[in-house]
Amino acid sequence: MLKNSVLVFLVLLVSLFVSCDSNRVFDTYKSVPNKWHKDSVVSFKINPPDSIQPYNLFVNLRNTNAYKYSNLFLIVEMIFPHGKTIKDTLEYRMAEPSGKLLGTGYTDVKENKLWYKEGVVFNEAGEYTVNIQHAMRERGKVNGVKELEGITDVGFRIENPVNE
Predict the structure, then answer these.
(1) For the segment 13-63, what is each residue's pLDDT rounded down to a tens digit?
(2) What is the CATH number of domain 25-159?
(3) Which NCBIfam families does the record associate with it (predicted)?
(4) Which residue, 7, 84, 114, 138, has most beta carbons within 10 Å?
């Protein structure tokens, strides 16, 4: 009887987690080995399921306490199937003024879901490529941070907009 109760509980728990994320269309992470080199580009290949519906796009990051900056600069490039390219330089706040890292998580690893674009319609059929690289600089220095510490994973997420 106890085994059946545990099994039912686990099934309910798994279904709860799956149903809580019904807006997800695409959600993938790629690991960053040790340090994120300034020339290292994290790429995602995407085949959107719909060419009419608008989607919300996010850059997802996992970072540890080794991340020592209060913000993060990223260069995000989207390459359309027919060659059109959109390139954005984005800034995100990563810590409170006190130094406490933002994001979710109970351990020293924090997850950050960062807005990229809202209401995007993938109106070209075919494969899209999203490239992400960091563009961090230290105050007063011309050259960028060569190896960024504390970022463990970079992800990209596409969601259906929440209907209210």
Answers:
(1) 444 444 456 888 999 999 998 899 999 999 999 999 888 999 999 999 999
(2) 2.60.120
(3) GldH_lipo
(4) 114
Return the domain boundaries, the chain: 25-159
pLDDT at residue 18 in the model: 46
The pair of three-digit structure tokens given for residue 147, joined into one six-digit string? 């190896």
CB 76 within 8 A of CB 129: no
Instruction: Give residue-wise pLDDT tens across range 84-95.
Output: 999 999 999 999
Instruction: Look at residue 19 in the predicted model and tell me its pLDDT.
Output: 46
DSSP the chain: -HHHHHHHHHHHHHHHHHHTTTTEEEEEEEE--SEEETT--EEEEE--S-SSSEEEEEEEEEE-TT---SEEEEEEEEE-TTS-EEEEEEEEE-B-TTSPBPSB-SSS-EEEEEEEEEEEE--S-S-EEEEEEE--B-TT-SSBPSEEESEEEEEEEEEPPPP-
Predicted pLDDT of residue 49: 84
The rounded distance, in Å, linking the Cα atoms of 61 and 52 is 28
Strand partners, 45: 129
Is the model more confident about 19 or about 136?
136
